Amino acid sequence: MLYPMMMDLKGKSALIIGGGAIAERKATGLIEAGAAVTIISPSVTPGLQALINGEKCFWSEKYFENDYAAGFFLIIAATNNQLVNQEVKRAAADNQLVLLIDDPNSSDFQIPAILRRGKLTITVSTDGASPKLAKRIKKQLAETYDERYKNYVDFLQQKRIFILKNVQDSELKNKLLEQITSDEFLHETDRNIAFRKLYETYCKET
User: N- or C-end of the chain: fewer Cβ atoms within 10 A?
Assistant: First the structure.
């Protein structure tokens, strides 16, 4: 069983071996997370080429050799050649995290299906058993947790900071924090006005 966690990759070095569609998807996600990405492949997709041209990542236009893995925090073997991917695993040191796209059971980590709504991140994993199922569940979740949640989570963060700073009574604090996570606030057209009314009502009660 894998241990789920959120990892800060800002400034961390990441190596991707392969230049196909899977490598492009992984590179895009790592770049968005702030990682310093290097691609090793004799050729790359147009999407990867655009990232390279935009100086979002570095491209080493060559085939993988064992000593190329040295020094990277995270390594993804994403070629269509199982022998090359296994060679990448053998070349990595014990303190390097390696993902083999075609062999999740031999990998140190897996990348789940990811749904983002601003600060809200929902991930789905089947421990590598069925990535297709994970994607289908992600699609179902996307219908429930739609684009409204992006601004809603920002609202929750702002009001949580306000409540923790201005409300001393622990019971009242918990009531306010619980109430703003209700469906009523999710569907509100003006959440700030609704919160002010709620806050004033609760303060009068105390």
Answer: N
